[in-house]
Specification:
- The protein is α/β, with parallel strands linked by helices.
- Helix content is 50%, strand content 8%.
- α1 (27-47) crosses α6 (200-219), α3 (75-92) packs parallel to α6 (200-219) and α7 (236-250) crosses α8.
């Protein structure tokens, strides 16, 4: 790991030549400059596509075997990890423990700066121990500048326990190295506001986490086509979304879709399976379980039996 005393050479700490007159620009030119620089986040993700795909496959396989996914970070990186983890239960109806965010300083660091706590590698290792991480789990270390001791401590401890490890940073490996199973480098260059990695680095990290978690859930059968069939129906908005999915995929009226949703126990995936196969709730639940929650596989199994 790069010595913390020499951070000035890191890509994320360098001065951006395109914004040297930042304090003199009118508002419209400020917006145009930010928009221009933010395009680099999309390019950075595209250049890391192979590593992201590998991370998706490894994570999906571990979770399929009963493992969990952990994001570890400090400051903005930690908050983005916690955010992505928090969005999985309502989007994919996953249990809260399946995807978890670990941030240096704990929950208080989500709303209050606690950057001083990121310098303790032993705290990162302790966070891994507290969660009893095993060889089935996946730990993603997120650090824009690549040097955060809390993250490196967590990754090292996770590797010692046999967990799959993924490193996500916005500096090249030549500046900061890290021994992990997957090394994702999201190179967006110097920030408009020198060193403020909540900008492009934060944007590209959010993009990468969106891709990682969503594609893992696709691999786990949480999606049918491009529909959120495991959505948790916990409020009016999500109920409306669930009814919309059922109507679109079945052609039912809203009233009939509502009745079907209630019969399924407010589980869109099961409701669709019941409608398409005429199975009971219990039979459909059993079939989904046998197919590891994959709706398409369950439907095809029934169709195969009928066709034969």
């Amino acid at each position: 790991m790069t010595n913390l005393q020499s951070r000035g050479h890191l890509l994320t700490e360098q001065v951006n030549p395109n914004s040297l007159n930042l304090d003199q620009l009118p508002s419209l030119e400020l917006v145009e400059l930010f928009n221009s620089e933010d395009q680099k986040a999309l390019t950075a993700v595209a250049e890391a596509k192979n590593e992201l795909a590998k991370a998706i496959d490894i994570t999906a396989e571990r979770l399929r075997q009963g493992g969990r996914l952990f994001y570890v970070g400090a400051g903005t990186s930690g908050r983005l990890g916690v955010l992505d983890a928090a969005e999985c239960p309502p989007t994919f109806c996953t249990p809260p423990e399946l995807v978890q965010g670990i941030i240096a300083g704990g929950a208080g660091a989500l709303v209050r700066s606690s950057e001083d706590l990121e310098d303790r590698a032993e705290d990162g290792a302790e966070a891994i121990a507290q969660r009893h991480i095993t060889q089935l789990d996946v730990v993603v270390g997120i650090t824009a500048g690549g040097t955060t001791p809390f993250v490196h401590g967590a990754l090292q401890a996770a590797r010692q326990r046999g967990a799959a490890t993924i490193f996500m940073a916005c500096v090249p490996s030549s500046q900061v190295s890290c021994e992990t199973d997957v090394d994702i480098r999201l190179l967006t260059g110097p920030e408009i506001l020198a060193g403020s990695t909540r900008l492009k680095a934060g944007t590209v990290t959010k993009l990468a986490l969106n891709i990682l978690s969503t594609c893992v859930m696709v691999r786990l059968g949480k999606v049918y086509g491009n529909r959120m069939v495991d959505v948790a129906v916990t409020n009016h908005k999500l109920r409306d979304r669930a009814l919309g999915i059922l109507q679109d995929l079945t052609g039912l009226t809203r009233e009939a879709a509502g009745f079907l949703l209630e019969r399924s126990g407010k589980w869109v995936k099961l409701a669709l399976l019941m409608h398409w196969t005429n199975l009971s709730k219990a039979e459909g639940s059993k079939l989904l379980s046998e197919n590891q929650g994959n709706l398409r596989a369950a439907v095809n199994q029934v169709k195969g039996k009928v066709d034969s």
